[in-house]
Design brief:
Keywords: Hydrolase, Magnesium, Manganese, Metal-binding
Order of helices and strands: EEEEHEHHEHHEEEEHHHEE
CATH class: Alpha Beta
CATH superfamily: Nucleoside Triphosphate Pyrophosphohydrolase
Structural class: alpha+beta
Strand content: 15-25%
InterPro entries: NUDIX_hydrolase-like_dom_sf, NUDIX_hydrolase_dom, NUDT19
Distance between the termini: 28 Å
Number of domains: 1
Shape: globular
Number of helices: 8
Cofactor: Mg(2+); Mn(2+)
CATH topology: Nucleoside Triphosphate Pyrophosphohydrolase
Number of strands: 12
Organism: Rhodococcus xishaensis
Protein name: NUDIX hydrolase
CATH architecture: Alpha-Beta Complex
Helix content: 10-25%
Radius of gyration: 18 Å
Length: about 290
């Protein structure tokens, strides 16, 4: 970290588009959450595990200005992608995330695609047991993917690459509260940064990027240098417990859907979720 897009402690303060709630919206009237995939990219650093974080561009309609992991919504092409697949079968992913197989395939494809689009890390290789050493030669394809001018399946086929789903691990499942206008049913994955590849911020969706230890990222939030949504804060707090990336990959977390509950206390929004005790009273909140 330390590029012009550094999202670390050097930032003087957090500026974001505040999350807006509709108190009248109920489970029966709320929009159906859209499937999404988020990838927690990790590596071993001098001070322990480091995670790759992006501060989203303030003008983004969802989570603008907030610090997040790479990820995004499932694209219709993800579910029908005809790709060479290395790793656990689709049925295994479906069981782990509690979804049908077409949805599982779409979620995994979206995870690999979004990671490449948002930070240039490609979990694919020329064979089932290799990974590309550099993605520098794919910059135009990356632009086309982000602009939806090229499908991820066509890109992999053109470059004769195998998608390495074995480099991913299922991690968590969070659903946006019913009172929000934009809702996502997000599956979280973890993945190790492949050797030889670099994560960057060359995407229109990121204003700043950085590698941070989970503790340092939480400290940035606590000092109001960043804004973390509850799912991001929760994953960082969990990752603080691991000494290295091997321990993270060996973990088998129970994945149950978490749907935070919104309440208003003294006229202010209060989002309840498992382990939320440390979230209030210190850091910057997404709703101002």
């Amino acid at each position: 970290m330390g590029t012009s897009r550094d999202a670390g402690a050097s930032s003087p303060g957090a500026t974001q588009q505040p999350v807006m709630f509709d108190e009248t919206q109920t489970a029966s009237t709320a929009p159906t959450p859209k499937d999404a995939s988020t990838v927690i990219l990790v590596r071993d650093g001098q001070s322990g595990v480091e995670v790759f974080l992006l501060r989203r561009a303030t003008e983004m309609a969802f989570a603008g200005g907030m610090t997040v992991f790479p990820g995004g919504g499932v694209d219709p092409s993800d579910g029908v992608a005809d790709v060479r697949w290395a790793g656990p079968p689709v049925s295994w992913w479906a069981e782990r995330f509690g979804v049908d197989e077409p949805s599982a395939k779409a979620l995994v494809c979206a995870a690999v695609r979004e990671t490449f689009e948002e930070c240039g890390v490609l979990l694919a290789g020329p064979t089932e047991d290799s990974v590309v050493e550099s993605t520098a030669g794919f910059s135009e394809a990356r632009r086309q993917l982000e602009a939806r001018e090229l499908s991820f399946a066509d890109f992999l086929a053109r470059e004769n690459l195998v998608m390495r789903t074995d480099l991913l691990r299922p991690w968590a499942n969070w659903i946006t509260p019913v009172q929000e206008g934009r809702r996502y049913d997000t599956r979280f994955f973890v993945a190790i940064l492949p050797e030889g590849q670099d994560a960057d911020g060359e995407t229109s969706e990121a204003a700043e990027v950085a590698w941070r230890t989970p503790a340092a990222a939480v400290d940035d939030w606590r000092e109001r240098r960043s804004v973390l949504l509850p799912p991001t804060w929760s994953q960082l707090a969990t990752l603080e417990q691991f000494d290295d990336v091997d321990a993270i990959l060996a973990a088998e977390p129970e994945i149950s859907p978490i749907l935070p509950e919104l309440r208003f206390v003294d006229g202010k929004p209060w989002v309840l979720f498992p382990g939320d005790a440390g979230y209030y009273g210190t850091g910057a909140l997404p709703w101002g």
